[in-house]
Write a structure and sequence with these properties.
The protein is of the alpha/beta class. It is built from 19 helices and 38 strands. The chain folds into 4 domains: about 80 residues, Alpha-Beta Plaits (2-Layer Sandwich), CATH 3.30.70; about 350 residues, Peptidase S8/S53 domain (Rossmann fold), CATH 3.40.50; about 120 residues, 3-Layer(bba) Sandwich (Glucose Oxidase, domain 1); about 110 residues, Sandwich (Immunoglobulin-like). It is about 25% helix and about 30% strand. The N and C termini lie far apart (about 65 Å). The structure holds 2-acetamido-2-deoxy-beta-D-glucopyranose (8 copies). It holds the Pfam family Inhibitor_I9.
Length: about 750
């Protein structure tokens, strides 16, 4: 070897060393085919390490530091830090199926139990022993173990099947767990792989953000007397399944959240033995075979674990939901019948109550009222001074009005508006009350009728029984599911708007003026809050019916949910001007736990049914094996027609022959879990412009667990004129005890 070549080799090594250190390394989640693992390897872990080692450039850091996680249950595979050339080499390795780059994930940022009809005399709570011994795994931002919601008074010993742990870490000792909070683990290797210099401020399962404490206590919080939020929502707080156990898997950090960590959390939860997963997180725009949460949920489903997920907060636009995965429950967010109010006591002795969620204290001081029109001019608002501005909004400028009035620091604001979404403005940092035009008229009349109008504020009023409720929240994401448009999503709606639940006591909940406020409870909104409500209900059903599959539990929740609000009218959609909500917003309707306990019939499905669906989606073998974790599967029976408790079909052909009709057929099988001997009759609502029929329209069961099949046929034009037509099919038994309802959606959208 000449000197020259030695030099160039040296330079080449230098170059390689340089490029592998500084070239764009990324973390990848890699799916492997376990059945291709050579027999020589004692475990999948050693095989993954050997595979990594064989593709790594000689100069690169140690193999074990490249491996981020080796997964066992949630997927077959690992996550690792790879350079582009290493990834390329890996793709040619034996057993490689697929990979995706690690990604950042977003979080879908006491009274609701009563609203759902849960009580200790009858129904789901007593029958299910309040979810006793069911273990809910919450993948979230950690937990505040000192919260009273996680006290274990009166709870029995931890079941011996539980394999979880209470990991110690920063400000978290393993003795902080108890018989309620039975597990606490944390995962941030993926986050650190992305950003090696990151300092994790709270390196333990302790929650510094609040989200995880809130969702865990919503699902399974113990009883806490005298819970309230600055005087609002006073009462005893408790979760949906007050005797279920909680295991926290922290994967969402103040510093960020990575898919690889969430996968590790689910992987561990499956190994630990959770019964239910509550995951108020999601990723937009991924195919099922690229969505690690969907893939991990498939593994969980196969083990009988029920997975509840959030629809997302990107509504009211169509096709915005995430977690539109056929084998999970997808939950939309609704309001409940609790309203937060304030009262304006007028100088003439009259008073006017309006919506308010101001957290400061009331004072009896009277201030002059100044009518300030549209409150859109900061200059003239400044002249109002230490008085109360009365603002009138008839042109959708409320948010600007609230901003201006808050900015110029007056004694307060009275906002009179015709916006349909008044309640989303009411959490103000300065004294304010909000009225619709009708309620506000009294104030306007008073202000205009006397020369020196004045008033005082009173806050912290909570009203139960508000009509109408529930309503679909405007922000709740809508279907159809982009990852699987052939299954109607979301599945159901649950309370998600202004939910009171526990909060870390040192994490500020909000501020008043410039003062930070702290509380052991917080009231927050989002599909994140709806998801744990449904997870808690699933825990009650799991306890009451231990033999039911996740699909059976989901079916029970769906077919018994309500389409009517507390005024017996169709549930309204705040996102569409209080027009009736449709199934692309609320799925089958608002959950009704007591009814779900005893649904009469269920629509069951197992992994084979889901695989038949994946086959019919024309996924490649690699894509399917990514989801099924390389288990051999059989595509001899492809079908988009999953045995699901809802129906969605597309009349969207670009065929110009508009006269000819087309026919869509669905096949369903129901299992009788109600009374042994029973007869069910089909009832269909009308779907405009479509012809719908059921055959047979009568199902006779001789015994429990008997199965019967039927067909639903929808005939319509090749392309519908309307974007959306919907209705429902209800099977009612002759005793009138059971009513098993499925929504039907026909749309001209493109799947
Ligand atoms: C991490 O810190 C080291 C040493 O302080 C620095 O050289 C490097 O550029 C930092 N890396 C990143 C990604 O910030
Ligand atoms: C709750 O509040 C009531 C009335 O103020 C009081 O009597 C009771 O002791 C309180 N309970 C707890 C557990 O603090
Ligand atoms: C309200 O009053 C209570 C008790 O007087 C006090 O502790 C609290 O700080 C006050 N709240 C605000 C926002 O000033
Ligand atoms: C509010 O009133 C204005 C003017 O009357 C009208 O144009 C607007 O559509 C109304 N908005 C709602 C949401 O009713
Ligand atoms: C309402 O707002 C629009 C723009 O948002 C503006 O063009 C229009 O003039 C406003 N109407 C009234 C009556 O203020
Ligand atoms: C799958 O492929 C078949 C045959 O090409 C086609 O008829 C069908 O529409 C495809 N299905 C989907 C969901 O794209
Ligand atoms: C695939 O499944 C069908 C029934 O669904 C069965 O008849 C067939 O034998 C299976 N094929 C293989 C290769 O397992
Ligand atoms: C119909 O045509 C539109 C516009 O060309 C296209 O976006 C859409 O995908 C087509 N729909 C179907 C079902 O082919």
């Amino acid at each position: 070897m000449t000197f020259l070549t030695q030099l160039s080799l040296y330079l080449w090594f230098l170059f390689i060393a340089f490029s592998s250190t500084f070239a764009d390394s990324d973390t990848y989640i890699v799916h492997m085919d376990l059945s291709s693992m050579p027999k020589a390897f004692s475990s999948h872990h050693t095989w993954y390490l050997a595979t990594l080692s064989s593709v790594s450039s000689p100069s690169s850091s140690s193999i074990s530091s490249k491996l981020v996680y080796s997964y066992t249950n949630a997927i077959s595979g690992f996550s690792a830090i790879l350079t582009p050339s290493e990834l390329k080499a890996l793709k040619n390795s034996q057993g490689y199926i697929s990979s995706i780059k690690d990604m950042t994930v977003k979080v879908d940022t006491t009274h609701s139990y009563q609203f759902l009809g849960l009580n200790s005399n009858n129904g789901a709570w007593p029958v299910s022993h309040y979810g006793e011994d069911v273990i809910i795994g919450v993948v979230d931002s950690g937990i505040w173990p000192e919260s009273k919601s996680f006290n274990d008074d009166g709870m029995s010993e931890i079941p011996t099947r539980w394999k979880g742990e209470c990991e110690s870490g920063t400000k978290f000792s393993s003795s902080l767990c108890n018989k309620k909070l039975i597990g606490a683990r944390y995962f941030n290797k993926g986050l650190l792989a992305k950003n090696p210099n990151l300092t994790i401020s709270m390196n333990s399962a302790r929650d510094t953000e609040g989200h995880g404490t809130h969702t865990s206590s919503t699902a399974a919080g113990s009883y806490v007397e005298n819970a309230s939020f600055f005087g609002y929502a006073m009462g005893t707080s408790r979760g949906m399944a007050p005797k279920a156990r909680v295991a926290m898997y922290k994967a969402l950090w103040d510093e960020g959240a990575q898919l690889s960590d969430i996968l590790a959390a689910i992987d561990q939860g499956i190994a630990d033995g959770v019964d239910i997963f509550s995951m108020s997180i999601g990723i937009d725009g991924l195919e099922l075979y690229n969505d690690p949460i969907a893939i991990a949920a498939f593994a969980a489903m196969e083990k009988g674990i029920f997975v509840s997920t959030s629809a997302g907060n990107e509504g009211p636009y169509l096709e915005t939901l995430h977690n539109g995965t056929p084998w999970v429950l997808n939950v939309a967010a609704g309001t409940n019948d609790r309203e937060f109010q304030g009262t304006l006591n007028l100088g003439n002795g009259d008073s006017a109550s309006g919506l308010s969620f101001y957290l400061g204290n009331s004072s009896s001081n009277e201030f002059p009222l100044v009518f300030s029109g549209a409150c859109d001019d900061e200059k003239s608002l400044k002249k109002v001074g230490h008085k109360i501005a009365v603002c009138l909004d008839t042109n959708d400028t409320l948010s600007a009005q609230v901003y201006y009035v808050g900015n110029v620091k007056l004694a307060g604001g009275v906002f009179i508006s015709n916006t349909t979404d008044l309640s989303s403005y009411i959490q103000s940092t300065f004294p304010a009350i909000f009225y619709n035009l009708e309620e506000g008229k009294k104030i306007l009349d008073y202000v205009k009728s006397v020369p020196d109008p004045k008033a005082s504020f009173h806050f912290q009023e909570t009203v139960i029984g508000a009509k109408s409720a529930p309503k679909l929240a405007g922000y709740s994401s809508r279907g159809p599911s982009s990852s699987c448009p052939f299954v109607l999503k979301p599945d159901v709606m649950a309370p998600g708007d202004r939910i009171l639940a526990s909060w870390p006591s040192n994490s500020p909940v909000t501020y008043v003026g410039s003062q930070q406020l702290f509380s052991n409870f917080n009231v927050i909104s989002g599909t994140s809050m709806a998801c744990p409500h449904a997870a808690g209900v699933a825990a009650l059903l799991r306890r009451a019916h231990p033999e039911w599959s996740p699909a059976a539990i989901r079916s029970a929740i769906m077919t018994t949910s309500k389409e009517l609000d507390n005024t017996e009218n169709a549930i309204k959609d705040i996102g569409s001007n209080n027009q009736p909500a449709n199934p692309l917003g609320i799925g089958a309707g608002h959950i009704d736990p007591n009814k779900a306990l005893d649904p009469g019939l269920i629509y069951d499905a197992n992994s084979e049914d889901y695989i038949n669906l994946l086959c019919a989606l024309n996924f490649t073998e690699k894509q399917i094996r990514t989801i099924t974790r390389s288990k051999s599967y059989n595509c001899s029976n492809p079908s988009l027609d999953l045995n699901y408790p809802s129906f969605i079909t597309y009349f969207n052909s670009n065929d110009t022959d508009s006269d000819s009709l087309t026919m869509k057929e669905f096949q369903r099988t129901v299992t009788n879990v109600g009374d042994g001997n029973s007869v069910y009759i089909a009832k269909l609502t009308k779907l405009d412009g479509l012809k719908v029929s059921v055959s047979p329209d009568k199902l006779e069961f001789a015994k429990q667990y008997e199965k019967k099949s039927y067909k639903l046929i929808i005939e319509g034009p090749r392309r519908m004129k309307d974007v959306l037509v919907y209705g429902s099919l209800t099977w009612t038994d002759s005793s009138g005890k059971y009513s098993v309802r499925s929504p039907i959606v026909a749309t001209s959208l493109s799947p």
